UniProtKB/TrEMBL annotation:
The keyword Hydrolase applies. One of its GO terms (molecular function) is phosphatidylcholine lysophospholipase activity. PANTHER family: SGNH HYDROLASE-TYPE ESTERASE DOMAIN-CONTAINING PROTEIN (PTHR30383:SF5), THIOESTERASE 1/PROTEASE 1/LYSOPHOSPHOLIPASE L1 (PTHR30383). Keywords: Hydrolase. This is GDSL-like lipase/acylhydrolase. The keyword Cytoplasm does not apply. InterPro entries: Ester_Hydrolysis_Enzymes, SGNH_hydro, SGNH_hydro_sf. Residues 93-249 form the SGNH hydrolase-type esterase domain. Signal peptide: none annotated. It comes from Clostridium magnum DSM 2767.
Length: 261
């Protein structure tokens, strides 16, 4: 009897031990599967990031820096922008000399603002270097470009065509970025000797309004804030008839500061 009881007890213990081992093996297998799944997800995310970085690098390498096309100043500015990653997720001011001249972060008391203005730039120049801006995935982009295009004799139609490509590129490559298009400012031909026509500036601004409406982009109309009789840039806000002085930038600041937070 005692031997029979011992044998039965051993069998029970063996069955329990076997069951425990089975449970441990199952749990261990599930743990391995979960870890593998997590690992695969991490590998997938890492792979996507690397692919995106490679794509951005290829786009950066495609920026045209030929000396026979672009000025030394343009090349120096673009390459210095490319050397920095500190602007990621910030607010970008993009444009020509009117943007370039101002220290926007100081004017608006906002350290999250970076300046991507280049003197004498055009819509072509902005398109050429735009990947340097979108790679930063900026929170917001404020654009003012086109006065130098007009000065070079380009038609409103061709400038708007480039604007469309600018907006399309930003929307495609930096989807979370909020875009603001600012009107061109008037010029003062009593001071500035130029063939640029006031009518061309007005017409481009009108077309920009239509473009922004179609793209559901915010248009900021600065023109009325700077103009006096006969479509002239207010002489109080300029020295040379094209660029604005400190007083002018304060007017500009008041018009946009509500959008810069």
């Amino acid at each position: 009897m005692k031997k029979t009881r011992r044998a039965k007890k051993k069998k029970r213990i063996k069955r329990k031990t076997t069951l425990i081992l089975i449970i441990v093996i199952v749990l261990f297998s599930q743990s391995i599967c979960v870890d593998l799944e997590k690992s695969n997800k991490v590998d997938t995310v890492t792979s996507k990031v690397l692919e995106k970085n490679e794509a951005v690098k290829a786009q950066l390498d495609s920026i045209n820096l030929r000396k026979d096309i672009y000025s030394e100043y343009y090349i120096n500015k673009v390459t210095s922008f490319m050397a920095s990653d500190s602007g990621k997720g910030k607010i970008v001011f993009l444009g020509d000399s009117l943007t370039d001249i101002c220290d926007w972060s100081e004017l608006l008391n906002n350290n999250d603002i970076i300046n991507r203005g280049i003197s004498l730039d055009t819509t072509d120049g902005v398109l050429n270097r735009l990947v340097e801006v979108t790679r930063l995935n900026p929170k917001k982009v404020f654009i003012m470009i086109g006065i130098n295009d007009i000065g070079k004799g380009r038609s409103t139609r061709s400038i708007i065509y480039n604007y469309k490509k600018i907006l399309d590129f930003i929307k495609e490559n930096s989807k979370s970025t909020t875009i603001y298009v600012q009107s061109l400012l008037p010029i003062n031909k009593d001071i500035l000797k130029t063939t640029t026509k006031n009518e061309d500036i007005i017409n481009l601004n009108k077309e920009l309004v239509k473009l922004c409406n179609s793209y559901e982009v915010k248009y900021i109309d600065l023109y009325p804030l700077f103009v006096v009789d006969n479509n002239k840039l207010n002489p109080e806000y300029t020295v040379g008839g094209l660029h604005v002085n400190g007083k002018g930038y304060i007017v500009w600041k008041r018009a946009i500061e509500q959008y810069c937070n």
